[in-house]
C-alpha cells in the first residue's frame, strides 16, 4: 500500500479551481473534433496501416499519474497526435487487409454521438423506452432486408425477435447458454434424480474445425464439451459427418444439444451447409446457432442471399453490421426464434428493476444478453439504414467483392502463387506454391515492410495469407498497390 | 418466408444513386449534432425525466421497412425530436433520482467520438497498440487515485493489472468464471478421477442477500450454486455468518470457492465488511471479488477511502467510472491480482489472432473479458481524468453527497417519514411510516406524476423508496423541488 499525498489533501470544495469544459467550450471542441475526424479519415492512406512501435512505447509518453488539477483542452488535444496516433492500427486504411473489415461511417458516428448525449442505460423498457423500441424495429427492418423467416421477427407476434449484442462472441455464448439451460431442464424433467453436474458431463456441443475460436471459448465458459467436426474440401460442415458423429455420441450416452454453424468462416470465408445440417439438428433437438458475423451483411444482396438457405432451421442467428454494413463497432445483430428460451436462462427480477410494463408488449433486453446495462446502439443502425438506403449498402458490398475478384485474378496470373479456397465475398486466401516456412517468411516481410497489413491462417496444416478488402475507401488502385508490394517482397525473398 | 421484391432487384451498381453523407456534409452535420447535444443537455430540466408513453408507441411513428434509396440527413435529423425524444428516459435530468447515476461529460463524449473515428478493434496488442497501452496506463492511474494495493498495478511488474469491462455484471462474471476454472483445476489435480460435473456439483459461491441481481445471474451462467448470506442490520456481510456458513458447507462436502462482496449495494448503498471477510476468504482459498460499481468512485476522496479498507484481500475488484466519475457509459474498471488465473480461463490462440509480440510486455485483453472485440474506451477515461483533474472529480462527488444529506435532513424533519438506512454517499432510502402498500401507492403517484423519477427497493420485506442524486447538474433547489413534489403527493395520498 502507498499513499499519493497530493490527491489526499482535504480541501474544502470552494477552494478547488476546476477547468472542466463547459457547454460553450464544447461547442468549439466538438466542432474541432468533427474536423479532426474528417481529416483523419480523408487522409488515412498516408498513415502506415500497422504502426511501427514496440510493446511498452506509450507509457514513456505520458506521466505516471493523473493530474490533481484539470488541464486545458489544448494540452489534451495536442497529445492525440503525439501519444495515440503513433500506435494506432488503422483498420480503415485502404491498405489494411487483415482480419475482416470493421465498418465505419459518418451517419453511424452521428448515432453514437447522440447515444452518448442521451446516455440512457436501456436495461429495461422503462429505463429507455425509445432505446428498446427503436432496437425492436431496427432488428425487424434488418430481418426483412435479409429475408429472414417470419418467426425471427418481433412484429409477427410470435416468440421471435432481434437484439443488438456487442459482439458475435456474445451472441454465440447467449445461444449456447440458452440451449444448455433448456436441455438441462428437459433432461431433469425426465430424470429428476440426476444432478446438474451429472447432466453437464453428458452434454456435447458441435462446431466445425473452421469455426471461430470464440465458439470453442463459449464452450469453455458454458463448461460443456465442444466437439470440432471435420469439414469437406470446401471448408463446409456436411450432413454425413454430422449424422455419424451424433450416432456415435448418442451411443456413448452423450447428449448432443448445440451446434454452431458458420456462414463465412474467419480463416477462409467458407460456408457450412445449413440446408443439410439444419433438419438433422431439428430432428435431434439440437439448438442450431448460425454465426454469419462477416458474410451476413452480403446477404442483403439478392445474388448472395442463397448463402443463408436453410436459415429457417436455426434457433438463433447472428451477423455483425459493424463488420460490413457501415455501422461503426459495436453492433452485432442477433435473432432468436423463441425468446422465452433465452430469457429463461438469464431472468432475474429484483424490485429495483421492476416496472409496470414488464412482460407486456415490449422486451426487457437485459434478459437476452450477458451485461445488464446497454447503450442506445440502434440509433446508429437507424441512421445508417436511412442514410444509405438498402441500395447504398448493397453497392458497398458489391464494390468490395469486385475488388476481391480483382486481387484473385492477379494471384491466379502469377504461377508462383495459388488460391487456397474459392473466392465468394471479400476475402482472398492465397499462398506461395512453397513450404509453410516460405509463406511465413513472406508474411513477416509484408508486415515488417508496413505499407500494407495482412494476417495469416492455417487450415489442415497448410499456412496461408488472407487478403481481406476492408476499408470503404479501398479502390482498384489500392488492390493493385497491395499486389505490387507483395510481388516486390516475394521477389526479394526468392532472390 | 416472404420476399421484399423492392430490395431484390439486380441493379448494376452504376445505376444506383446514393445519397451517402460525404465528408463535406459531415463537417456540417457533426457541428449540428454537437450543438444539438449541448442544447439537449443544457435544457434537459425542461423535459420530464420519465416519458409518458406506452409500450409499442414507437413503431407507429416509423415505416415498417428500411428505405431502398438513401434519405437526406434533413429527413433523418428531424425525426430525432419526433420519434426518439418522446420516449427517452432522461438519466441526466436533475429530476431523475432512480437507480444510480450514469455519468456523462463533454470530455468523455469527445473521447467516444475519437474512438469511433479510429474504430480499431483492440482484441490483441497488435490490433491496436495504443488502444491496449492507454488502457493499461489509465487503469494504473485510476488504481493510484484509489490507493489500491500495488499488486493490482500492471506497472509493478507482478501479475496484476486493470482492464475496462463494459459493465459490472461482466466483471463479476469474469471473476466467477476465473475462480471456477481455477478451483476445478486444483480439485482435479488432487482427484483425477472426478469429472468436471462431479466437481461442479460440489462448488458453492457466496454473496450477500443485498448484492446486485447480476451476482446471482453470474452463478446461473457459471452453473454454480450461489448462496445468499444474511447481513447485519446495517446491510453488511460480517465474519460470523460467513465462518459459520463455510463450516456448514464444508461439512456437507461442498467446496466454497467464490465470494462476491459489495461496497455500496444497489438497494441501500450498504457496505460488506472487507476487513473481516477478506482474511477468511484468503484462509479458505475463496476468490474474493469486490463489486463497488457505484461507491468505488467516492473512494477517490480521502474522507471516503476507508470504505475500501480490506481491499488488499481481494483477488479482483471493480467499480464503474461510468456511474459517478464523469465517464460516459460504458466504462467499468476492473483489477485482477493474478492475470494468469483470468486468461487461463479464457485463452484461445488461433493463427489469425497470433502476433509477434504476444505474451510479452503488454496484455492481449481478449483473454481478460467475455467479448472478443473491444472499443477504444480508455480515450474517454484519459480525457476525463485530465480535463477534470482528480480534484475536479472529487468536487462532483462531494457535491452529490452534500445534496443527499440535504434530502435526508428534509425527510428526517417530517414525522410522517423515516430513513431506512444510514446515508453515506449519494443515496437516501426512505419510506412513509406506514404499510408497504401505502409506500407502493406513493411511489406510483410520484412516477405517474412525471415531474421526478424514483425507483423502489425492498429489504427484509420492507418496501421503500430510493432517492439517488444522479445528474451532474442537480442543485440544492432540485432537491428541494423533489421533496416538495413528494410532500404534495403524500398529502394527496393521505387525504
TrEMBL record, chains A, B:
Cite a GO CC annotation.
Answer: cytoplasm
- Keyword set includes Metal-binding: no
Q: Which Pfam families match?
A: Pyridoxal_deC
Gene3D superfamilies referenced in this protein's UniProt entry, alphabetically? Aspartate Aminotransferase, domain 1, dopa decarboxylase, N-terminal domain, Type I PLP-dependent aspartate aminotransferase-like (Major domain)
| Quaternary structure (record) | Homodimer.
By its UniProt entry, which PANTHER family does this protein fall under? Answer: AROMATIC-L-AMINO-ACID DECARBOXYLASE (PTHR11999:SF167), GROUP II PYRIDOXAL-5-PHOSPHATE DECARBOXYLASE (PTHR11999)
The protein's name is Aromatic-L-amino-acid decarboxylase
Q: Which gene encodes it?
A: LOC106072988
Amino acid at each position: 500500500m502507498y499513499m499519493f499525498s497530493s490527491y489526499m489533501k482535504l480541501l474544502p470544495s470552494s477552494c478547488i479551481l476546476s477547468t472542466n469544459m463547459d457547454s460553450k467550450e464544447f461547442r468549439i471542441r466538438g466542432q474541432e473534433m468533427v474536423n479532426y475526424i474528417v481529416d483523419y479519415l480523408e487522409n488515412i492512406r498516408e498513415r502506415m496501416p500497422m504502426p511501427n512501435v514496440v510493446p511498452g512505447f506509450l507509457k514513456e509518453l505520458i506521466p505516471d499519474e493523473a493530474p490533481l488539477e484539470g488541464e486545458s483542452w489544448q494540452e489534451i488535444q495536442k497529445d492525440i497526435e503525439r501519444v495515440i496516433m503513433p500506435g494506432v492500427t488503422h483498420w480503415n486504411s485502404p491498405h489494411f487487409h487483415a482480419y475482416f473489415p470493421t465498418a465505419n461511417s459518418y451517419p453511424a458516428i452521428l448515432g453514437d454521438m447522440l447515444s452518448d448525449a442521451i446516455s440512457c442505460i436501456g436495461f429495461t423498457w422503462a429505463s429507455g423506452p425509445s432505446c428498446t423500441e427503436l432496437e425492436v424495429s431496427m432488428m425487424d427492418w434488418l430481418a426483412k432486408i435479409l429475408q429472414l423467416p417470419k418467426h425471427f421477427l418481433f412484429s409477427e407476434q410470435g416468440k421471435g425477435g432481434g437484439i443488438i449484442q456487442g459482439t458475435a462472441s456474445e451472441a454465440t455464448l447467449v445461444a449456447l447458454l440458452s440451449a444448455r439451460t433448456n436441455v438441462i431442464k428437459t433432461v431433469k424433467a425426465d430424470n429428476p434424480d440426476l444432478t446438474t453436474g451429472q447432466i453437464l458431463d453428458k452434454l456435447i456441443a458441435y462446431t466445425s474445425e473452421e469455426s471461430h475460436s470464440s465458439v470453442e471459448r463459449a464452450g469453455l465458459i458454458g463448461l460443456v464439451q465442444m466437439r470440432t467436426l471435420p469439414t469437406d474440401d470446401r471448408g463446409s460442415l456436411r450432413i454425413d459427418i454430422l449424422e455419424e458423429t451424433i450416432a456415435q455420441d448418442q451411443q456413448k450416452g452423450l447428449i448432443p444439444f448445440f451446434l454452431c454453424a458458420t456462414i463465412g468462416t474467419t480463416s477462409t470465408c467458407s460456408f457450412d451447409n445449413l440446408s443439410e445440417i439444419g433438419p438433422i439438428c431439428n430432428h435431434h433437438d439440437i439448438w442450431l446457432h448460425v454465426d454469419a458475423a462477416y458474410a451476413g451483411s452480403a446477404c442483403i444482396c439478392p445474388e448472395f442471399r442463397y448463402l443463408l438457405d436453410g436459415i429457417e432451421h436455426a434457433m438463433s442467428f447472428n451477423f455483425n453490421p459493424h463488420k460490413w454494413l457501415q455501422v461503426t463497432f459495436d453492433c452485432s445483430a442477433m435473432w432468436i426464434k423463441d425468446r422465452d428460451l433465452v430469457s429463461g436462462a438469464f431472468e432475474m427480477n429484483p424490485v429495483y428493476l421492476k416496472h409496470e410494463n414488464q412482460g407486456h408488449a415490449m422486451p426487457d433486453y437485459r434478459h437476452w444478453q450477458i451485461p445488464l446495462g446497454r447503450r442506445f446502439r440502434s440509433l446508429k443502425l437507424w441512421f445508417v439504414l436511412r442514410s444509405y438506403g438498402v441500395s447504398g449498402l448493397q453497392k458497398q458490398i458489391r464494390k468490395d467483392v469486385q475488388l476481391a475478384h480483382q486481387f484473385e485474378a492477379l494471384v491466379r496470373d502469377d504461377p508462383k502463387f495459388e488460391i487456397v479456397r474459392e473466392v465468394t465475398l471479400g476475402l482472398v486466401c492465397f499462398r506461395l506454391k512453397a513450404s509453410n516456412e516460405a509463406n511465413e517468411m513472406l508474411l513477416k516481410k509484408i508486415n515488417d515492410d508496413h505499407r500494407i497489413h495482412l494476417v495469416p491462417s492455417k487450415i489442415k496444416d497448410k499456412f496461408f495469407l488472407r487478403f481481406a478488402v476492408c476499408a470503404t475507401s479501398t479502390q482498384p488502385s489500392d488492390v493493385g498497390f497491395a499486389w505490387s508490394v507483395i510481388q516486390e517482397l516475394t521477389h526479394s525473398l526468392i532472390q
